[in-house]
Amino acid sequence: MVAKIIQSDTRPFNRIAVDPITLDIVENALRNARTEMDAVLFRTAMSPGIREQHDAFPMIANQEGKMVVGQFGSFLYGFINGYEGTIEDGDIFITNDPYSCNGAVSHLNDWLLMMPIFHEGKLVSWAAMFGHMTDVGGKVPGSLPTDAKMIYEEGMIVPPTKIFRKGELADEVLNIMLHNCRMPEWNKSDFFAIIAALRLAERRVRENIDRFGVDTYISAMWDMLDRNKAAMSAIIQMIIPEGDHKAHFEDWIDDDGMGNGPYRIACSLWREGEVAHFDFSDSDPQSLSSINFLLNEEMFKMFFGAFTINLFDPQILFNDGFYDLVEVHIPEGCILKPKKPAALSCRTHMLGRIFDLMGGLLGQGAPDALNAAGFSDSPHFMYSGFNEQGEWYQLFQIGFGGVPGRPAGDGPDGHSMWPAFTNVPNEFLEAYFPLRIREYATIPDSGGAGLHRGGNGITIAYEMMEKGEISIHDDRWLTYPWGVNGGEPGMRSTKRLVRTDGSEENIPSKCDRIAVNPGDILYFNTWGGGGWGNPLKRDPELVALDVSRKLVSEEGAKRYGVVLSRGKVDRKATEKLRNKMAGSQSKQLFNRGFESIEELKKRCKAETGFEPPAAPVFHRFMQAAE
Amino acid sequence: MNSTDDLIKHYEERLAAFEERLRRMEADAGSAPAPVRPMRAGTGLRLGVDVGGTFTDLLMLDEKNGRTYTAKVPSTPADSSIGVLNGIEKICREAGIAPTDITEVMHGTTVATNTVLTNAGALVGLVTTKGYKDVLQIARSYVPGGLGGWVIWNKTPPLAPLELTIEADERMGANGEVVSSLDESRIRKDLKKLFDQGIEALTIALFNSYANDAHEKRIAEIARDIAPDIPVSTSASIMPEMYEYERAETTVVNSYVRPVVSKYVSNLQRELRNRMGENVLLQILRSDGGLSSAQLAMDQPVNLLMSGPAGGVSGALWIAKQAKFENLLTFDMGGTSTDVALIQNSVARTRRETRVADVTVRAPSIDVRTVGAGGGSIAYVPELTKALRVGPQSAGADPGPAAYMKGGEEPTVTDANVVLGYLPSDAKLGGDMAISRDKAAEAVGKIADALSIPVEEAAEGIIKIVNENMCGALRLVSVEQGYDPREFALIGFGGAGPLHANALARLINSWPAIIPPGPGVLCAYGDATTQLRNEASQTYVTRVADTSDAEVGKMLNALRDAAARELTSEGVAQSGQSVIYQIDIRYHGQGMKLTIDVSPEDFEREGLAGIGRRFDKEHEQLFTFALDAEHELVGLRAVVQDAEKSFIAENQGAGGADASSARVHTTRIYTDGNWQEGHIYDRDRLRPGNRIEGPAVVTEMDSTALILPDHVGVVDDVGNILIWPADHENAR
């Protein structure tokens, strides 16, 4: 069933030639509209996840639903094809159900709003935006239960629904939604903030049409899509060799929070004619916990496109135009395409790991353009409870770590690899939550050694000021962020809880509802980026500078074969050490820091303090745990 | 034209005269200050001074007699106050007045900007709270460039190097409570070590200091105790707002530019007092177009990063009001860089932050974009690609373009203009600066040789490329903000703007290209016509329910008195002052705030409830919705302002279309691959209504304008030249 679009004027648009200046102006006006959508949202939203960390993503699409500006490509085509009902002027649709929008949003926390934009009785564009709500109900605060077996435990599911019908808010529907969340005030404000952003997009689209005429506007969008297709076609042929050879790469999610792991994702890449093929068939089947990631194929195409085009023309306004040039195969029942009702809430690790996977895959054809593995995740810290006044507080926060060493240079320390994300200022945290942030610093030596060093991870020392519970979702505590071209892996993540009585414990990477008391301090240590290139080739003075900046320790400098004496490079000793180290260097393209998963598991307990996870057992036709 | 030897001799003579003046000045500085004469602002002459990379421009307003005077002298980059004083001497001489008749000096300066652009700031040491030494290293974790942007992005190192960052053992809580007191002996020891490493300025940016800055102040005392000569900036005094990274970064930038700026301002102030008397009032134009006292400018130079460009935009606004253009792209091309801005409905866009190169600080500014392309930009041909590149390296004022014969040898944009005849070697710059075409051709010849093309073609290539670069900046403020440049006029000023305005207008289709009278002193116009304005503010994060009309009213009154006091002390009668209260307010839980302007009378009448209503209304208008959530105050401000000064426009007698009486002689101009015949005009002899057919060169004391073939310049009633395409309806 395809949605019925109600238009009073059903004549088709005329495609006309658009002069280059007008095209540039339309393109830039749309780009600017998108920036404005973000600005309005961040200014009016209330949850720290959106207002400070920017976990929300806008899009403007053409009348067919093809993304013209945005980040993750369009999901509208799927929605239009799957929605049983009408699409009319004044409607706004809401959904958070990954299974009814083919993974356009990938867990229930993301509320997706979609608005058709009409002009004189004709559908001329779409605006859409999704944002991560701090809470959408379910069994745990934050709605991201590690041990969920089915999606029903993760919060309220809203299939595509008209939340505005002909301009009127369906307030009873909204009420139901807000009554199922722990932070209704935030959700309400965030919801209206997204609506405000959509309305702004609508205004900008109409202004463009008033200025240039509807045919010029529509044609300009087609031109923009074509321009991308041409650019991507050239890029695909440049970076993916044609022929029988298939590039192959694999990476892992360490565990599922229930004692099983690691889970493998694997992909093959080849080119047939002008079409690039990505095949995920070798990936593990879906898991019984919530680490599954329903990967929308179109979104993956966007990841691929954005990842590569930045190397060639970072100025281009990226859009959906090249979708026909990429084929993505993900078998059903795979961890990247789980079957309903599998739990999905903690998909963030798999989502992040896709980027390491893609880097490793694409880089094989061009090792010089290959980046090491980086901070491929958006780990969560959650803290909630009732304060002394009996008021509910609830924090959802995303952490950052090391950007990998890259051909372009060292990886920045403690930065985000996810677009637009920023950290929450610690002064903000202390002003609005019962927290004191004792330390916020980079972790020396956590970045992998290399000619270009990996960025360091961050340590955040959270002192809890109230009784409450914390939850953590993190990864790379077992496998390492790998290094490339001679670079070494980065350091793993760790979490340590220091109680007021002086006792200390290591906290597992994925856990929920850990009880905390005032004065307890959690050290949340994120991982570093992998190193790029031979560390013995790094200028010893640069290593000494890093040491003086406490980004690398004096002991850590030895990983670069650099010996320091009173802060200065000891030339002789350095040369000697480097000569000695040169003999035993690995010649592998990728340095994962282990021989095999079995070998890694053998040293797990000694190195991490935790028992190794059990190898996951997969059942054919498995859908979700009973 | 003189031979090269003659020119060098001429230059040496000028240099000798200049040094003689310097010696006199130094002698003056040692003598006793002139007796103090009581003087009130507004009663004497106002002087606007703009220091650019190449020239220092001055404009004197004599309001009583409705006259203006202008002067232009070379800038003196080693100490720009010398150039200013030279200019003052010149303008007083030409106007026939005594320096003591000048009561107010308004000054826009690029000293702070250039310090950042050329990485020439102080070596800054930073003190953070224990656990936060990486505050600048981590910043906000933001990587620009969208999805995959991290692949190519390299972060610039912090302006306060991490190896010169120390941590103080202390802690404030979010409510201003002392969590752990300052370990004074430890910080004293660590500061000593830091000073031993040769830092030239110190920033103290402690966690939660916006709530309580007692520890910041104490550490500042200790630092002054150890090293009294090192300037100390504390974050709560520079940016008393929440957000530790933004506050630290803004304060570090303040420290970074401070030694250079305060040396400059204090020298200037001392010299002005020597000449004009103790009571002369020196004020510095801020980035947001307001004025700052000299002392505040020295303490908080971070607010001056856009001072120079703000003067240009203010001047352009002033001239546009005279010429009745409301929508303008301003294009200020100097020796080293070009600043562009957009004015819509006679209002310049401003923003909450200031950006210079990679540096972003929380200080309000006029939205000016800068590109490293100016008259002094150096052209070169990279060995590998054989491409022709122009800038951002600049010959600046010293040695300057080859044509100026001050030792410059690299080919610059100015040299290309000279080779092409746009800047005739027999025209004069700044009244007495000579130009050598031979030197220019010799320099541009290097490019011609590298590309194996004739020298004219090389010169035209240089001009085309620099125009394209500037066009990119104009697109940034127009197209990329959703504005169509075809709906704007382009106003070109600064030393080199009038030479390029016609070509740029043609590139982006903004007509007319406006060449204001005295384009080089437009910035100085802006400086001189800016109103005196002062404000006092305080952060006050409080839910409306937790305070009262009376309490807030009392605070606003105190802020008004504080702001008015300074203005009154600067000679503005209280009767001439207008007061506006600004209240920053939001819904509790929101990150943003809106500023509600309210008169003291309205606040008296409506109180906080009225503010809340206005806020709801504005929130709904801006964002399409209002909430029933609680209101929260964020900050209070009182703005006190002098009454608007009347504008002065010189009245010129009207003339007919025939401009031939202003012709100086014929000349040759190379454009579009050919030498063409045209005329040189003397701008002083042009009258309103005159039409100048391109190709033509219009020279005046302080600049030279180019009118291209198939274009026509029309002189309007206030003396602007409006350049239109010859077939444009407005050209007929």
Features:
heterodimer; A: alpha+beta; 22% strand; B: 732 residues; alpha+beta; Nucleotidyltransferase, domain 5; 9-stranded mixed β-sheet; globular
Structural commentary:
Chain B: Pfam families: Hydant_A_C, Hydant_A_N, Hydantoinase_A. Chain B: Residues 550-715 form the Acetophenone carboxylase-like C-terminal domain. Chain B: Keywords: Coiled coil. The complex is a heterodimer of chains A (626) and B (732). In chain A, 27% of the residues lie in helices and 22% in strands. Chain A is of the alpha+beta class. Chain A has a domain at 4-226. In chain A, helix 1 packs antiparallel against helix 5, helix 1 crosses helix 6 and helix 5 (184-212) packs across helix 6 (214-239). The two termini of chain A are 31 Å apart. Chain B is an alpha+beta fold and 732 residues long. Among the domains of chain B are: 123-230, no CATH class; 307-373 and 467-529, Nucleotidyltransferase, domain 5 (2-Layer Sandwich), CATH 3.30.420.40; 377-464, no CATH class; 534-642, Dna Ligase, domain 1, CATH 3.30.1490. Chain B is 34% helix and 25% strand. In chain B, strands 13, 14, 15, 20, 23, 24, 31, 34 and 35 form a nine-stranded mixed sheet that branches. In chain B, helix 10 crosses helix 15. The longest helix of chain B has 33 residues, at 244-276. At the A-B interface, helix 1, helix 5, helix 7, helix 9 and strand 16 of A face helix 4, helix 8 and helix 17 of B.
Tell me the strand order in the biggest sheet of chain A.
3-2-7-6-5-8-9
Strand content of chain B: 25-35%
Q: Please report the two chains with the greatest interface, counting residues with C-beta closer than 8 angstroms to the partner's C-beta.
A: A-B, 80 and 58 residues
Count of DSSP-assigned helices of chain B: 17
Main sheet attributes: strand count, strand direction, barrel closure of chain B: 9 strands, mixed
For the secondary structure, the number of strands of chain A is: 26
CATH architecture of the domain at 307-373 and 467-529 in chain B: 2-Layer Sandwich
CA-atom Rg of chain B in angstroms:
27 Å
CA(first)-CA(last) distance of chain A = 31 Å
